[in-house]
Amino acid sequence: MPQDSAADDDRSRADVGIVAALPLELAEFLRRCERVRHYTGGGFHFRGGRYDGVRVVVAESGTGRQRARRAAQALLDAHHPRWLLSCGFAGALQPQVRTGHIVIADRLFALDASPVQIDVHMPSDPARGWHVGGLLTVDQIVRKVSEKQALAAQTGALCVDMESHAVGEFCRDHNVRCLVIRAITDDTSRDLPPEVLSVFGATGAVRLGAVIGALWKRPASYQDLWHLRETALHAAERLADFLDGVIHQLP
After folding, report:
1. Superfamily of domain 3-249, CATH level 4
2. Where are the domains of the chain?
3. How do the pLDDT tens digits run along the chain, 251 residues long?
4. How many beta carbons lie within 10 A of that of residue 62, not counting itself?
């Protein structure tokens, strides 16, 4: 291989690849990285930079298992990361898991697929808001507390998202080391506003028309959506803080 081609290949490699559905989820973490670059490819947005010398690339997959698996494949093909992480937001299924807490998954569940086991060498630390346990991946946003309680009783999972099982399954099938880290944006104390089902598109972008329509139909939804935005910003900061301590510990 020519020397310049080898150098280009080396620069394309990443130590850590992260699949995140929404830009907001990793925005605070990427703000702490250096020399962040942005490009698009294969229908996804990629942002890569260095975190204290560790090369990190984030693929913004959009919502859902199919897109998350495709984003994981794109990361592996383009950047050959040593680790693949599924990071972002999740909804709590258990009452002890509160907004702003962090869940590190050691088991990934889906109602229509076999579980995926992940070796996590750390204990839970409830005093710091860190929980190690099961995560359930579903195909629709779980909005109501009653729905969360039913899923908790059925699976025993700590929280629920829409992507992580696909990433864990991909890593298992391709023998890639995996971690799943989720920050909680909604707990079991209240239902999510009904508008949350319509304001996010499949790619993770906010549908401005849906927001305007929600405000027109129910003016009080402004307060609900603003509260959701504030909890999401807090969760993104908590996730970035936790990743601060994780990235350098990955072998």
Report:
1. Nucleoside phosphorylase domain (3.40.50.1580)
2. 3-249
3. 344 444 344 568 999 999 999 898 999 999 999 999 999 988 899 999 999 899 999 999 999 999 999 999 999 999 999 999 999 999 999 999 999 999 999 999 999 999 999 999 899 999 999 999 999 999 998 989 999 999 999 999 999 999 999 999 999 999 999 999 999 999 999 888 775 644 454 444 444 444 444 444 645 655 666 677 788 899 999 999 999 999 988 87
4. 24
